[in-house]
């Protein structure tokens, strides 16, 4: 069996075990239940594991501290196979059969949206973890659902700020986006911002699932862009990068949103040097809360946490603060989350009247040697500028 | 549009066309000999891609060795699946054949998703750098893909058109009963055709992993385009399929540049529907309309 | 005649079951169970729609997910324009029916695989076009402005599943049904006895598409929110075809058994073997196609018939 | 007026001439035998009348109406029933359903089902009415196919090799059945077995190499030197 296969199987077994087991001390009082629909299998399966670990670490720590109001907490999770329809059924199961007080987020915006439909009807608060697409709070009024992830609108914020500081000579910027809501919103924000900065910008859309970016590379070359920002999913970003390398096209600055992920090294090898990215959270973040979380996580799971785990842990912290203040009254918890600024490992959680995240922003990163370092605002690390040519 | 740009887009279209040609050739071979529409073809592409990925990341080998590995693996698996599953349904109604290969596709997809997870896999090893011909830049990886496709395509054509076994395949495509009565080993010929087609698909997968990334569904897009090629070119005509493959490669390349890749796909599908309307008898290479 | 009798009996049982299912929200059953019943009916109705064209004529459709999606979009657009619910549902059925005429006109004149391919590409084509269509919300999709109580789509879906099942049963044993099945068994012979196969195929496909469109319409009211990539996911067409295949193609009971099994299986495998669900569905379809050519219902019926025949002396012939 | 009037028929299949300049008249009420060695063009001619093949040139009239461009299903509704050389029953349907499929809808409302029972009795299949067609023997299937064509209440019945593949006893049954049916209906029969089929014909047409080489009563045909040559040539080959 391959490694990923074994991992998936173990994860599956773990998911079942969690049903009964997450951090509940034997003989303790009835636990407060929280629930999450996770994509243990399917498209998003890799991320689910990190979310699960974040939730687990949070629950264990709370229970070690004696629970909330004397009650232990328990996070129940099921596998939604990366499908919104399954997520909706599981939300019903969690609300109805397991009687959860709060729903913690799944992976991806469409599944969060599906769960929101069930939760809004049943009036159960949802703390949406990995849902960067803030349009789901705009298409309709969501009273019970909150965004606990930086909104994708600001995907290009750090990149454009660096461009303003370092790239005085750069006049033409190309933005590549996916025909998906989160990416379109990010593109719109960046277009407006870049124009405001006096830059000439062109944006190129591609079809989700595209693998061939050669024609887009030709358009970028023909436009004569000096800087390129890619705002799509991870896989197309890698494909675009490779095809830029093949074409021998060297922008002075190159950014793609998920570049900070360690997999980038595996996919692009030595070519990563100088590539900019953005991250919701990094274990190298120099805040006490981040350091404490990273240490605890490493002690438990033997490696550094990803931003998924940090987001999950932060969602737990939000729920914890609300339940400490309001007990298990769902309506009171909802009002508390909607109106209170809550400190978490991600920064200060704060939502606007629509439920969109305003407190967290992204941090800028850059590949320097073997690691993606935090650069730009609030970081002492120097930026490599311009980006070295492809090797 | 400058001449350089024109040739650049043409070159880009060639790479896609070459891969499509290999995929379509396999589909045409299976349909021609067995009258089976192989919906599972995409999974064999995915198989070759993952095999190459494992070869590179687990053994540290060059991805170029993934091509013979995929050929061998695909040939063996194709042989087994033909013997174990496909042979049971070739005499059955069309619905059964469609559902069999469709079910195989679902099983394969499920297995890849369970085995490798949903995220993409990729590696950075392999040929790097590019060839610059008067401003037209083609990467060595892409050139490797194109050349391999041409070699494999030519070899398959030679096998079918010239070799002794090819005669059996062509006879089968004409008339199964007559072929059998002429002393052609129908079972062996069918097994050979399926196994060769799967080997081609898996090799295409190895090449796809070289220029792209690998996911459990990586083969689907290619096989869907492969079906378009086969329908436009006519299953009866191998030359037609090759022309259609490169034609679609060019449409994709130029339309993506001039509009975007979504429009390119819309144009390709509309062309397909137009072809169904205009020349129904040419489609799938046999006249069935009463 | 026993045939009319069995249709009537089936209709009675279906109506009774449907009534019980429809009454569940008022019988204090948990909303989780209701959701499962809802999904079973959803898959059942979609499966019956597929069964109508593919089970009865033998022309395999991969477009039913797309047809349901078209219905969903049409209904949301109509309801957001303040149309009454009934008109919104009618819009969904009509839009899907119209779309089916487009596919049918190009491909149902032909025999063999042309129709299958036309439907195979249709799903992706519609998805691409919807993403480009501002009126359909583009990549961001659409949201139903008014949130309807769950009981509305719930009752509608139960009724639709029951009606579709009865319709397939009634058709199966009607003279028109016999003529449709004649096309499936031998189209050349069917034409030789005066069956206008093209017209009949197009008509049946249109009816089937209208049901699929209604399924999508009702589900749109249930979910209240449409994303093109979710609405036009290939998986929905897979369900439309897996459900009747597992249960039994061309029978009225096939999709009923198939849908219950599919939903039950999914709930079980989610806990027992997460991640293997898809593989198991595939293997199940493969096993049914290879070893139980008329599905689980057919196999059960044959086993029953064999038992009866051995128990009671044969009546001759 | 002839029931069927085919004039100057020509049919080419990708360059090969299968039928050239054939005139064929079928009189109301007769049983016409269409004979000839393999490749004579008799099956093509038969299919042109049935509507399965469209002629390259020439016209076919049925009761004075030009039906050259009329599709097969509409010819069936106009009153032309046919059988197939290789039987094509609806195997998954019952014997009775096979007949039901063929009844015109107006007739179905007029209580035609009684006639179906009579038809089944006529072909000796009344006991198998509810069995699937797949369970029948070849002889039964051939008779079922004739019954299915008759369920259309046609004015013209086209029989394509009704004796092919049957045992001696089954052949006798089939010929007897055809003899019963011919009293009420016009029949065109293509048959390989001249010895068995010729005696029951009113008139026979013999084709060879795409043309008609002889025409006449069974007695005349038997003595016709061109016919003897054509068949001897075939036997010698």
What is this structure, in a nutshell?
The complex is a heterotetramer of chains A (391), B (290), C (317) and D (237). Chain A contains 12 helices and 14 strands.
Task: Walk me through the structure.
The complex is a heterotetramer of chains A (391), B (290), C (317) and D (237). Chain A is 42% helix and 17% strand. Chain A has 391 residues and is an alpha/beta fold. In chain A, helix 2 crosses helix 11 (307-326), helix 3 packs parallel to helix 4 (109-122) and helix 11 packs across helix 12 (330-339). The longest helix of chain A is centred in the first third of the chain and has 20 residues, at 45-64. Mean pLDDT of chain A is 89; it is low at 1-27. Chain B has helices spanning 3-34, 41-59, 66-89, 94-116, 140-161, 164-174, 176-181, 186-211, 218-233, 238-258, 261-278; strands spanning 130-133, 136-139. In chain B, helix 1 packs across helix 9. Chain C contains 14 helices and two strands, in the order H-H-H-H-H-E-H-H-H-H-E-H-H-H-H-H. In chain C, strands 1-2 form a two-stranded antiparallel ribbon. The model of chain C is unreliable at 312-317 (pLDDT under 50). The chains are: A alpha/beta (391), B mainly alpha (290), C mainly alpha (317), D alpha/beta (237). Chains in contact: A-B, A-C, B-C, C-D. At the A-B interface, helix 1, helix 2, strand 7, helix 7 and helix 8 of A face helix 1, helix 4, strand 2, helix 10 and helix 11 of B.
SSE layout and pairing:
The complex is a heterotetramer of chains A (about 400), B (about 290), C (about 325) and D (about 240).
Chain A: H1 3-21, E1 32-38, H2 45-64, E2 73-79, H3 84-96, E3 102-104, H4 109-122, E4 126-128, E5 145-147, H5 157-166, E6 172-178, H6 181-196, E7 200-206, H7 214-223, E8 227-230, H8 234-247, E9 253-256, H9 263-268, E10 276-279, H10 288-301, H11 307-326, H12 330-339, E11 342-344, E12 347-349, E13 363-368, E14 371-375
Helix pairs in contact in A: 2-11, 3-4, 11-12
Chain C: H1 2-23, H2 31-57, H3 64-80, H4 85-107, H5 114-132, E1 142-143, H6 151-172, H7 175-185, H8 187-192, H9 197-223, E2 225-226, H10 228-231, H11 234-247, H12 253-272, H13 277-291, H14 295-311
Antiparallel strand pairs in C: 1-2
Helix pairs in contact in C: 1-6, 2-6, 2-9, 2-11, 2-12, 3-4, 3-5, 3-9, 4-5, 4-9, 6-9, 11-12, 11-14, 12-14
Chain D: E1 4-13, E2 16-26, E3 31-35, H1 42-50, E4 57-62, E5 65-66, H2 72-78, E6 80-82, H3 95-100, H4 105-109, H5 113-122, H6 138-150, E7 156-160, H7 168-181, E8 186-190, H8 194-197, E9 203-208, E10 211-216, H9 218-223, H10 225-236
Parallel strand pairs in D: 3-8, 3-9, 6-7, 7-8
Antiparallel strand pairs in D: 1-2, 1-4, 4-5, 9-10
């Amino acid at each position: 069996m391959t490694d990923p296969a074994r991992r998936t199987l173990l994860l599956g077994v773990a998911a079942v075990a969690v049903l009964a087991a997450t951090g509940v001390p034997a003989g303790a009082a009835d636990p407060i239940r929280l629930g999450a629909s996770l994509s243990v299998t399917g498209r998003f399966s890799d991320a689910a594991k990190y979310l699960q670990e974040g939730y687990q670490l949070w629950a264990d720590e709370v229970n070690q501290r004696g629970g909330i109001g004397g009650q232990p907490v328990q996070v129940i999770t099921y596998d939604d196979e990366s499908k919104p329809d399954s997520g909706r059924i599981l939300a019903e199961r969690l609300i109805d059969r397991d009687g959860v007080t709060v729903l913690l987020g799944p992976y991806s915006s469409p599944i969060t949206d599906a769960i929101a439909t069930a939760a809004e009807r049943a009036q159960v608060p949802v703390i949406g973890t990995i849902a960067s697409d803030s349009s789901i709070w705009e298409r309709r009024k969501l009273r019970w659902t909150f965004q606990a992830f930086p909104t994708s609108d600001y995907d290009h914020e750090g990149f454009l700020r660096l461009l303003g500081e370092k790239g005085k000579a750069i006049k033409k910027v190309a933005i590549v986006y996916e025909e998906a809501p989160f990416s379109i919103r990010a593109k719109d924000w960046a277009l407006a911002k870049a124009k405001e900065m006096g830059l000439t910008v062109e944006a190129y859309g591609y079809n989700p699932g595209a693998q061939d970016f050669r024609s887009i590379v030709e358009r970028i070359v023909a436009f004569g862009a000096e800087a390129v920002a890619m705002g799509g999913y991870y896989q197309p970003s890698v494909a675009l990068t490779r095809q830029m390398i093949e074409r021998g096209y060297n922008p002075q600055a190159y950014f793609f949103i998920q570049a900070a992920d360690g997999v980038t090294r595996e996919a692009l090898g030595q070519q990563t040097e100088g590539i900019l990215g953005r991250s919701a959270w990094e274990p190298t973040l120099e805040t006490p809360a981040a350091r404490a979380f990273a240490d605890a996580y490493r002690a438990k799971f033997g490696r550094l946490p990803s931003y998924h785990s940090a987001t999950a842990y932060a969602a737990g912290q939000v729920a914890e603060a609300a339940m400490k203040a309001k007990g298990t009254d769902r309506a009171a918890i909802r009002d508390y989350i909607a109106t209170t600024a809550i400190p978490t490992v991600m920064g200060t959680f704060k939502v606007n009247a629509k439920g969109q995240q305003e407190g967290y922003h992204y941090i800028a990163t850059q590949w320097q040697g073997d690691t993606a370092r935090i650069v730009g605002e609030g970081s002492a690390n120097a930026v490599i500028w311009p980006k070295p040519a492809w090797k | 549009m400058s001449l350089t740009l024109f040739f650049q887009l043409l070159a880009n279209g060639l790479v896609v066309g070459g891969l499509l040609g290999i995929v379509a050739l396999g589909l045409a071979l299976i349909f021609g000999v067995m009258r089976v529409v192989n919906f599972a073809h995409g999974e064999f592409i995915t198989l070759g891609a993952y095999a190459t990925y494992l070869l590179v990341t687990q053994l540290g080998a060059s991805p170029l060795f993934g091509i013979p590995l995929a050929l061998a693996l695909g040939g063996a698996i194709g042989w087994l699946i033909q013997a174990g599953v496909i042979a049971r349904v070739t005499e059955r109604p069309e619905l059964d054949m469609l559902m069999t290969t469709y079910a195989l596709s679902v099983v394969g997809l499920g297995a890849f998703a369970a085995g490798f997870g949903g995220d993409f896999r990729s590696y950075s090893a392999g040929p790097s750098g590019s060839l610059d011909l008067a401003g037209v830049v083609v990467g060595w990886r892409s050139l490797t893909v194109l050349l391999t496709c041409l070699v494999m395509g030519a070899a398959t054509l030679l096998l079918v058109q010239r070799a002794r076994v090819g005669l059996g395949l062509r006879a089968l495509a004409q008339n199964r009963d007559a072929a059998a009565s002429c002393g052609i080993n129908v079972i062996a010929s069918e097994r050979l055709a399926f196994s060769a087609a799967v080997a081609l698909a898996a090799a295409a997968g190895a090449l796809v992993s070289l220029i792209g990334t690998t996911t459990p569904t990586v083969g689907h897009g290619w096989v869907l385009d492969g079906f378009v090629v086969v329908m436009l070119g006519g299953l009866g005509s191998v030359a037609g399929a090759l022309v259609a493959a490169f034609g679609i490669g060019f449409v994709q390349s130029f339309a993506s540049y001039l509009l975007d890749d979504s429009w390119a796909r819309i144009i390709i599908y509309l062309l397909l529907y137009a072809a169904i309307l205009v020349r129904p008898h040419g489609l799938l290479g046999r006249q069935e309309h009463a | 005649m026993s045939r009319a009798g069995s249709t009537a009996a089936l209709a009675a049982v279906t109506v009774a079951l449907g009534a019980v299912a429809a009454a569940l929200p008022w019988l204090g059953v948990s909303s989780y169970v209701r959701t499962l019943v809802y999904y079973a009916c959803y898959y059942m109705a979609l499966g019956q729609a597929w069964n109508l064209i593919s089970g009865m004529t033998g022309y395999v459709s991969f477009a039913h997910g797309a047809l349901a999606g078209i219905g969903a979009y049409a209904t949301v657009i109509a309801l957001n324009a303040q149309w009454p619910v009934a008109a919104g549902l009618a819009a969904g059925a009509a839009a899907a029916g119209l779309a089916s005429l487009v596919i049918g006109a190009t491909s149902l004149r032909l025999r063999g695989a042309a129709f299958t391919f036309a439907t195979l590409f249709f799903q992706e084509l519609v998805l691409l076009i919807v993403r480009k269509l501002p009126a359909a919300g583009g990549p961001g999709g659409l949201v139903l402005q008014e949130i309807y109580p769950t009981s509305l789509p719930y009752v509608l879906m139960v009724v639709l599943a029951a009606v579709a099942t009865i319709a397939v049963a009634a058709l199966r044993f009607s003279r028109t049904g016999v003529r449709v099945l004649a096309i499936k068994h031998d189209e050349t012979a069917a034409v030789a006895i005066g069956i206008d196969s093209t017209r009949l195929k197009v008509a049946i496909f249109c009816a089937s598409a209208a049901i699929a469109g209604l399924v999508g319409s009702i589900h749109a009211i249930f979910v209240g929110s449409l994303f093109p990539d979710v609405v036009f996911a290939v998986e929905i067409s897979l369900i439309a075809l897996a459900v009747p295949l597992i249960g039994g193609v061309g029978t009225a009971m096939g999709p009923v058994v198939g849908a219950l099994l599919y939903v039950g299986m999914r709930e079980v495998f989610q806990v027992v073997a997460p991640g293997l669900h898809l593989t198991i569905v595939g293997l199940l379809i493969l096993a049914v196609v290879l070893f139980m050519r008329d599905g689980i219902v057919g196999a059960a019926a044959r086993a029953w018939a064999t038992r009866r025949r051995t128990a009671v002396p044969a009546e001759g012939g | 007026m002839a029931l069927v009037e085919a004039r100057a028929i020509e049919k080419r299949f990708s360059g090969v001439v299968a039928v050239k300049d054939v005139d064929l008249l079928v009189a109301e009420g007769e049983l016409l035998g269409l004979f000839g060695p393999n490749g004579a063009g008799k099956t093509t001619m038969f299919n042109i009348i049935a509507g399965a093949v469209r002629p390259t040139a020439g016209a076919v009239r049925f009761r004075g109406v030009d039906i050259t461009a009329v599709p097969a299903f509409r010819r069936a509704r106009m009153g032309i029933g046919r059988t197939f050389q290789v039987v094509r029953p609806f195997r998954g349907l019952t014997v009775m359903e096979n007949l039901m499929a063929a009844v015109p809808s107006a007739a179905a409302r007029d209580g035609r089902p009684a006639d179906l029972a009579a038809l089944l009795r006529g072909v000796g299949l009344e006991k198998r009415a509810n069995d699937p067609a797949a369970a029948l023997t070849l002889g039964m299937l051939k008779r079922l196919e004739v019954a299915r064509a008759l369920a259309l209440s046609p004015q013209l019945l086209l029989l394509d090799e009704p004796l092919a593949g049957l045992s001696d006893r089954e052949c006798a049954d089939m010929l007897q059945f055809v003899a019963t049916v011919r009293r009420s209906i016009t029949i065109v029969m293509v048959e390989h077995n001249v010895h068995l089929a010729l005696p029951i014909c009113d008139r026979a047409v013999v084709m060879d190499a795409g043309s008609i080489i002889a025409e006449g009563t069974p007695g005349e045909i038997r003595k016709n030197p061109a016919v003897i040559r054509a068949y001897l040539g075939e036997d010698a080959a």
